[in-house]
Hints:
Elements: E1 6-10, H1 14-26, E2 30-34, H2 37-46, E3 51-55, H3 63-71, E4 78-82, H4 87-95, E5 100-103, H5 108-130, E6 133-135, E7 138-141, E8 146-149, E9 152-153, H6 158-169, E10 175-176, H7 177-185, H8 195-211, E11 216-219, E12 223-226
Parallel strand pairs: 1-2, 1-3, 3-4, 4-5
Antiparallel strand pairs: 6-7, 7-8, 8-9, 10-12, 11-12
Amino acid sequence: MEESAKIFIVEDEKHIARFIQINLEKAGFKTAIEHNGRRAYERIIQEKYDLVLLDVMLPEMDGMEICKKVREISDVPIIMLTARDEIKDKVEGLELGANDYMIKPFASEELLARIKGIIKRRREVRRQEENHFIIGDMILYPDRYEVKVGGEPVELTHKEYELLIYLVENKNHVLSRDQILQQVWGYDYFGNTNVVDVYISYLRTKIDDRFGKKYIHTTRGVGYVVRD
């Protein structure tokens, strides 16, 4: 876990806030504390935190209202903290957009484990999202084998995706059928040599035809190319 992660502790009981802060800082996190609900909301939208520990019962603005308002403008991870072990409270908090919910009193080890898990998953998603290709309205996420055009997901087979990625990685460069065959199907492929044309047709049906925009172009006598 990276030590630079900053946790915002929103808790009106000062001794609890301090106890949490000590344990988090021992684990290598940076921390900030706020005891007032309204000020906490203002700080969440103005400052940058990796995760918010949000008590439900707070002066001036309770945790549920804060969670609801924050979710309108931010996806910062939120763990709700409450002394009330009521199913309806848990459901309400999660439906408002909280990532997790913990009942007081809780073990500091469990709180640390949940914080680390949420931050790890969030950073992994961000890492995958950063590794992407954009061609017009089309976005490809290689690590997740996902394609979206205009925000809509496109279902591709594994081989269709490999072909599309190869074309996109070499955008604006015409690739011959032999080049595509060797890179996507392998040097030892002995099947039908028209397989490239067949799969290009599949991609055009699922992407070009469906969305009414031409991404894959043919250069006669040479091969295929994806252009911006």
